[in-house]
Amino acid sequence: MNIFVGSLPFSIDEADLRESFEAYGAVSSVKIITDKFTGRSKGFGFVEMENDTEAEKAIQELNGATVDGRTIVVNKSEPKPEGERRTFNNNRSGGGGYNGGGNSRGGGSYNDRNSGGGDRGRY
Fold it and tell me: For this UniProt entry, which segments traverse the membrane (predicted)?
């Protein structure tokens, strides 16, 4: 079973998290999610336990527990349905530059005072 662990103290490492869950059974993997630019913990992670009964016991016992002064959140991790994954739309109309064209925020050319663009001030 995949278990979500949230509100983790930023100082906790994967070995400490593994140790907390191993008190309830065998742990197959531990992953604390980190910021890709700074490498710092984002304050949440995932623990994988093979035995569902042991995993349920760990969830019951550890949810709401205090770790380094923080109350952690522990629950069963549910995968997001395929249709709800976050996507980025790179097909935006309009555009920047000096001759931006029209878009939902105005636009128009750089020096055209009657362009109908938003009230962003003039140069």
Answer: none
